[in-house]
Design goal:
Radius of gyration: 21 Å
Helix content: 10-25%
Distance between the termini: 66 Å
CATH superfamily of the largest domain: Cytochrome-c3 hydrogenase, C-terminal domain
Oligomer: single chain
Shape: elongated
Number of strands: 6
Largest sheet: 2 strands, parallel
Number of domains: 2
CATH topology of the largest domain: Cytochrome-c3 Hydrogenase, Chain A, domain 2
Length: 247
């Protein structure tokens, strides 16, 4: 309840949204329900225009602000500060339109990339040289639940606070920009598999291709990557083309 007024925050948001030129859901809770909506959801948490991945939410599927836009969702748990400032800039300059939003009304400027794009561990990913525990340097998709190949976001192309991201910090992407990330159905650090093949395969290539290429990649993995992938520090660096460089 809002202090002193006897009104719920939900009712206040509904009233104010009807008066606003733009309505923005900042963070995955405001966008989709997020962590607060997990489990039994006894508080009936939902997003402003989505309840998980279903249209609706607090304001309803048909809501439009005074400028004719649906709720603009800027997801993330926590949200990237640059995503917020960039979106607000586009709105204030009058450049934001429905064409700039994806199916979850997130700005395409954010969601046109996957978290996987620009990841510092991509060489390990290409050769399927996988980490086996958190301190290892290898790709975290196969064994540690990383969803960077499935999650929308430019986290590794536009790092946090300069150089940072979850994967560069040694932790797998948990897809916090996606609706329903809070209930993956398994431990965040687990990669569910069937016959040794991860269930959650990359969204940017056909599954059959991925399975076939994985087998070929593993067969061709350089010893340098295979050894470094299961180490907590660089054991062997790439060789220079300079003659005699074997250090």
């Amino acid at each position: 309840m809002a202090g002193g007024g006897g009104l719920s925050m939900m009712s206040m948001i509904e009233t104010l949204a009807k008066l606003a030129d733009y309505v923005v859901g900042v963070g995955s809770c405001a966008a989709f329900g997020g962590i607060t909506a997990a489990g039994d959801n006894v508080v009936e948490a939902c997003g402003l225009a989505f309840d998980g991945n279903q249209k609706g939410g607090l304001l309803g599927a048909e809501f439009r602000s005074k400028r004719g836009l649906p709720v603009v969702n800027i997801p993330g748990c926590p949200v990237h500060p640059d995503w917020v400032t960039e979106t607000l800039y586009h709105m204030s300059s009058g450049e934001m339109s429905g064409d700039h939003l994806d199916e979850f009304t997130r700005p395409r400027a954010i969601t046109k990339n996957l978290v996987h794009h620009g990841c510092a561990r991509n060489e390990y990913y290409e050769y399927k040289a996988s980490a086996e525990k958190l301190s290892h340097l290898g790709c975290m998709m196969e064994n540690l639940g990383c969803k960077g190949t499935q999650a929308a976001g430019d986290c590794n192309l536009r790092p946090w606070n300069g150089p940072g991201s979850c994967t560069s910090g040694g932790y797998p992407c948990i897809a916090c920009t996606e609706p329903g990330f809070e209930e993956p159905g398994h431990d965040f650090l687990e990669t569910p598999k069937i016959a040794g093949i991860p269930i959650g395969l990359p969204t940017d290539m056909p599954k059959a291709w991925f399975v076939a290429l994985s087998s070929l990649s593993k067969a061709a993995t350089p010893k340098r990557l295979r050894d470094n992938a299961v180490s907590d520090r660089l054991i062997e660096r790439p060789l220079s083309k300079r003659k005699g460089d074997r250090s």
